[in-house]
Design brief:
mainly alpha, two-stranded antiparallel ribbon, elongated
Length: 92
């Protein structure tokens, strides 16, 4: 009977870790969304590219020869899963 209790206790402990990890990830996602929303409201101080999403660097300064691949790499996607889509918007 005791081995069953140990297995049950370990299973509950593991589930708690998963829930805490998910909560931490959700909190980080909410923080980043708030940061990105604030960036969208601010006028750009200098020329550059604004990346909206779960990224570490939402603003990538413009330099001569900047490529899309360099912009994506500099933004540094930090989401938990691979992105499903990338939308490029060029205002006129």
């Amino acid at each position: 009977m005791k081995p069953r209790l140990v297995i049950l206790a370990l299973a509950l402990a593991a589930a708690g870790c998963t829930i805490e990890s998910k909560a931490r990830m959700d909190a980080q996602q909410a923080f980043l969304e708030g940061q990105n929303a604030a960036l969208k409201k601010q006028p750009a101080a200098s020329a550059g590219v604004t990346v909206i999403g779960t990224v570490q660097n939402a603003f990538v300064p413009w330099v001569a020869g900047l490529t899309l691949a360099q912009t994506i790499a500099t933004a540094n996607y930090i989401g938990a899963t691979e992105p499903k889509q990338i939308i490029i918007y060029a205002p006129r």
